[in-house]
């Protein structure tokens, strides 16, 4: 008897038994149920993710659509991989595979990878939460430790920011402890204008109010009318009048420069003196000759 014949004979002897056929049938039914349950779990999770993303888009706070889609895909992949892994393990258990050594080996392998790639895992987890919590986005001006600049890329492992002088800083996400975002809310431009003691304070205040009103009308970066608060400080040789203006995010420096230039022009045109260091020399004259 050939080997093929022996195999055919073994199959006939085992699969012709009603108990074996019933066992195979129920194993197939269980495998099908496990598979369908896994598909159902993934489908329910996708519905929940879609609902969360829709609620996020309809929120009064406006989020980047691209980032919302990225978060949705990340969460979907995480749930899908987890459910599929559990499904495969359950199916292997149904066909008689001993999962104990397999799980033990996977645990040892995962432990070894965890010890060898702690920083990588930390970077990935931190990057996920940066994206999920919408801490900052591409184009935002942020400061991380001593690095300040515009965000060029947010990755799962690293974040790239470009400083205003052109340098690109690549920062591992796991090293990001504290972030200051200058692009989330409106900024405040603060301008202190020095006038001399000899100047008329009321007249200077009126000139400043007219000037900042004109600046507000001619620029889109100021979101509401600037305020002239009044005398902020009395110095040794000057009085400082403070002006504040609420601006669009991260435009306060440009607005302050524009206001400084216009204020200088209007003060000169109005004859209001801006103090500057002066040296006054007194010459003491003595009578030539004694009585």
Automatic annotation (TrEMBL):
Residues 120-183 form the Mechanosensitive ion channel MscS domain. It comes from the Bacteria. Residues 77-118 form the Mechanosensitive ion channel transmembrane helices 2/3 domain. GO terms for cellular component: plasma membrane. It is found in: Cell membrane. The chain crosses the membrane at residues 20-42, 74-96, 102-121. It is a multi-pass membrane protein. One of its GO terms (molecular function) is mechanosensitive monoatomic ion channel activity. Residues 190-274 form the Mechanosensitive ion channel MscS C-terminal domain. Signal peptide: none annotated. Keywords: Cell membrane, Membrane, Transmembrane, Transmembrane helix. May play a role in resistance to osmotic downshock. Belongs to the MscS (TC 1.A.23) family. PANTHER family: MODERATE CONDUCTANCE MECHANOSENSITIVE CHANNEL YBIO. This is Mechanosensitive ion channel family protein. The lineage of its organism: Bacteria, Bacillati, Bacillota, Bacilli, Bacillales.
């Amino acid at each position: 008897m050939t080997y093929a014949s022996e195999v055919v004979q073994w199959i006939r002897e085992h699969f012709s038994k009603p108990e074996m056929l019933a066992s195979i049938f129920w194993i197939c039914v269980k495998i099908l149920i496990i598979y369908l349950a896994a598909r159902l779990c993934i489908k329910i999770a996708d519905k929940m993710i879609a609902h969360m993303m829709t609620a996020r888009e309809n929120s009064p706070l406006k989020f980047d659509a691209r980032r919302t889609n990225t978060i949705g895909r990340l969460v979907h992949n995480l749930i899908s991989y987890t459910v599929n892994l559990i499904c495969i393990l359950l199916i292997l258990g149904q066909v008689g595979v001993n999962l104990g050594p397999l799980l033990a080996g996977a645990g040892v392998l995962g432990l070894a990878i965890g010890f060898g790639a702690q920083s990588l895992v930390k970077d990935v987890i931190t990057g996920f939460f940066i994206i999920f919590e919408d801490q900052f986005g591409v184009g935002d001006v942020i400061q991380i430790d001593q690095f300040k600049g515009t965000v060029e890329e947010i990755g799962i492992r690293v974040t790239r920011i470009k400083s205003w002088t052109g340098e690109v800083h690549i920062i591992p996400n796991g090293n990001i402890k504290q972030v200051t975002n200058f692009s989330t809310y409106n900024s405040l431009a603060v301008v202190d204008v020095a006038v001399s003691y000899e100047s008329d304070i009321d007249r200077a205040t009126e000139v400043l109010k007219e000037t900042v009103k004109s600046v507000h009308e001619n620029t889109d970066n100021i979101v509401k009318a600037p305020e002239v608060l009044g005398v902020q400080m009395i110095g040794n040789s000057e009085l400082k009048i403070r002006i504040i203006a609420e601006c669009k995010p991260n435009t306060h420096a440009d607005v302050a420069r524009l206001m400084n230039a216009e204020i200088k022009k209007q003060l000169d045109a109005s004859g209001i003196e801006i103090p500057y260091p002066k040296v006054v020399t007194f010459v003491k004259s003595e009578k030539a000759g004694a009585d």
